[in-house]
Amino acid sequence: MRPLQRLIVVPACLLLGGTVTPCKAGTDLSRAEPTKEECFSALEKARTLAATLPTGHLSRIFAESHLHQAMIEANNGEFDECLEWSERATVEVNELKHTLQPGETLKMLRPDEEPRR
């Protein structure tokens, strides 16, 4: 058989939506998209978790920013993106990815302000 005449078998999960996605064992292709309720539940859990950090804590600020983006995605009907941003907020709080060293401060600029040089 010549190389170009071989039958190429491609798993269906690689062809969905015209994009290439890796196949996972036990992939449930019938899984419905996330719902609004799932999104808001994840948002509330992440918001509660973020509230455990002090108000000025840098990781809380980042987490709240992620939660803001999650709300934007939810309002656009992108509930899968909402869940991803909620997860980012949760990871931010759990891992404390951003912290200030003793004596350091964070100055938040308004959109119309320019940093001093």
Task: Summarize the SSE layout with pairings.
Layout: H1 36-50, H2 58-75, H3 79-95
Helix pairs in contact: 1-2, 1-3, 2-3
What does this structure look like?
The chain is mainly α and 117 residues long. It has a domain at 48-100. The chain contains three helices and no strands.
Largest sheet: none
Q: Provide the succession of SSEs.
A: HHH
The backbone outline, from C-alpha atoms, is: globular
Oligomer: single chain
Report the span from N to C terminus: 71 Å
Strand content: under 5%
Extended strand count: 0
Look at the helices and sheets and give the structural class: mainly alpha
Query: How many distinct helices?
Result: 3
Radius of gyration: 21 Å
Poorly predicted spans: none
**Residues in helix, %:** 40-55%
Average pLDDT number: 80
How would you concisely characterize the structure shown here?
It is globular, with a radius of gyration of 21 Å. The longest helix has 18 residues, at 58-75.
